[in-house]
Structures are given as C-alpha cells and as structure tokens.
Write a structure and sequence with these properties.
single chain, TIM Barrel, Alpha-Beta Plaits, 2 domains, eight-stranded parallel barrel, three-stranded mixed β-sheet, 12 helices, globular, binds iron/sulfur cluster
Length: about 425
Amino acid sequence: MSLRFSCNSTSFPQQHQVRGNLKSSKNLDKVRNLVKTVGVPSLTSSPLESLRRGNWVKLICGASFEDVVDIRNLSLVYTLAGVDCIDCAADLAVVSAVNDGIESARDIVGLRRPWVMISVNDDEDLHFRKAEFDPEDCPLDCSRPCEIVCPASAISLNEGNSTLEVSDGTNASRVLKGGVITERCYGCGRCFPVCPYDNIRVVTYIRDTTATADLIKRNGIDAVEIHTSGRQSAFFEELWDGLGDSISHLRLIAVSLPNVGDSTISSMNTMYSIMEPNLPCFNLWQLDGRPMSGDIGRGATRESIAFAVRLAAVKDRPPGFLQLAGGTNAHTVDGLKKMGLFQTTSITKNSKDEILTASLPNSLHALIGGIAYGGYARKIVGRVLSSMQSQYGVALIEDYPEHLLEALREALALVGTVKSYDPF
Ligand code: SF4
Ligand code: SF4
C-alpha cells in the first residue's frame, strides 16, 4: 500500500515551546562545564567548515520518526554535543520540535546553530514506510516477538476487551489492544519477518512535493535530502522540478542513495546533471551503506565503509561532499581510519592494489566530509530519555540535569569520535 503524505500543520505542543531562563540555572553548570571541557566547536565554527575538514556529524532523527517529544530532546542533547546538522521528517511539527531543541540547547550554552535538514523521497523507499496491524487479529497467547524486536519501542500491546460483541451478545471476549505507535515507527522492518501469523503490513508513502516546497520556504530549514534509489532519473527529475524556487532558501542539498554497484556513478552523474543548472548551494552525497542498522552491532558499519572506499577511488564522480550513513556507529571512524579515509584528501591504489591516501592540509577539502548517525545515536540517548520518561512522564530533559548530563556524555562519546574531543 502506498500513500502520499502532506506536511502536518500541527504545531509543537505549547508546553514544549516555553523555555525557562536556562542561562541563569545553576543546576545546569555541570552540563556547561562538560561542553567546555571537551571543546565542542564554538560559535565561529560553521557546519560548512566541518564538511571541508572531514569532521561533519549529522544526527538523523529519521525520515519517518515523528515523536516530537523525543525529537525535541534528542535535538537538544546532540546540539550540545556539537553536531553540524539535524535531519528529520519533512513535517512542520517535527521541524518545530527540532528547532525548539536546538534553541533550548543554545540557551544553556552559546553554541553555533546546527543546520536543520528535512528528508523527502522520489519513490518508494525503506525510510518512508510504517508498520501496521490490527492487534485484535493477534492470538492472545502470541509471545509478541514484534514488541521485543522493535528498536523504537513503537509497538505496545495490552490485553483488553474486544470492541466486537461475542456471539451470545453478553460478555466481551479478551483480545490484544494497542499496536503500532505510528509516530514512533520509522520503518526499520525488523518486526515484519518475526510475526508468526504474518499479521504485519507495510504502509509506504511519498512526501508531497508541493507541501515540502512550502515547508522549505518557512524559517528554520537549511537543507533538504532527497532519498532515491538512483534507478529512475525521471522520478528524481520530477521531484527536483517540483521543489522549484524553494531550493534557493537552502544552504545544502543532499542526495541519499544506496550502493547499486556499477551503475552508482552513472546514476550520480545523471542526477547531478539534473540539479546542476539551478543548484543554488553546496551538494552532498549520502552513502547509505546498510540502511537503518547502526544499532545492530559493530559489523553493521562495514557496508557503509566499503561504499565510501569504492566511491572515493572513482575519479569521474560528480562534484559534492561524500558522507557516510546506513550502519554507522561508534566503530565507523576506526573503520575509516583503517582504510586511510578519515580526514584525508585523496585516494589512489598502488600496483599491489593497496590504498594510498594523502593527509589533510588546511587548504584542501577532505575526501569524506563526515558521518551521519541514526539508529545508533538515537539508541544511546534514547535509553536515558526512556528512563527519564518512566520516572517523570513526558518531560523537557533540561528540567532533569542529571539525565541531561548522562545523555550528553553518551552523545559526546559518539560525536567525539569524529570531532576528536578531549577525553572527559
Ligand atoms: S518497522 Fe521497525 S520501528 Fe516500525 S514497528 Fe516495526 S520494528 Fe518498530
Ligand atoms: S508477533 Fe504478530 S501476532 Fe504476535 S502480537 Fe505481534 S503482530 Fe500480533
């Protein structure tokens, strides 16, 4: 099933828009001290400079993740950790939540603002789908593996009374209630194969281009990312044309694509030729190694590194920064270093097919602009957010400084692998 989604006009809940006088809050001194101790980039260090130096970090909230409370708190924590960009769903409420998190972080410490990026798709795409099922169709004695495997806690089931009358019209029968929490589902697909009764459906959707163009023209969006398979240039062109003059408001245009083997470079060149006549800003290629898998384990990052090695060695690729995603986690920088690709400027192979690289003098751009972290970044901070929520309910993380400190340590440990922060 495929749907067309428009941008949601709901505004971020008012209680989350009200920020206290955080600059004067003594309780947050430990947070401020930690940010200063590790050397998070100051107001003068721009996201563009990070791309050039090869230490750009993007937080991926998820093209389909729409839990505005978590998104707001994640954005606050990762802004304090010094990310350069926060990528989120092309939805007004989500964009407002990201900007609220960013500004609340900047109220605590005067850091520069990360860019806000929205994600759209030109065709059906793994990142733009949701799981769906009717829990009343599930046997009561199902061991509920769907709930267990979901990395986003997006499935919640409880026993309750059926809404349908039983045949004798007297007692309601017991059934499962709840199901998929739509705004938390980001379409990772892990629940689909584990259901023993094949009850879970996939609902895919394509973001509406006109609504996206209107959203871009509002304040608070700096970049757009087009997810594409790269196989259907006509779909890409249709989306690009549909965005029209809204792109003149942007500082960066990213194209996220999977590794499609030998045709990857020709697809990239075709897409670049479509964009190039009216490309108003810098562009970036997001190399989506193994989509939505960074939280699974160490090995998940191998495909994104292999994709980067392959592209970096190709001479006739189109202009644009290269950035890893899809399977990225705490091991990605080590993997890049092993391949000689971290903050280097060129890659060649010698007669023995060994990789030779050149290190980064100040005047040259890094070959790999940086790394985007999604599932792994959300998992390490999400643990703290869940614990806070189970203790206090829906909350602004800065109201609980010990939780904020714990979440910030997690975020700094990840972002610091790219930005080489001082130990803390
Ligand atoms: S698709 Fe992924 S995020 Fe969505 S409910 Fe299934 S396991 Fe959870
Ligand atoms: S695994 Fe399938 S049958 Fe069991 S609770 Fe989940 S969706 Fe229902």
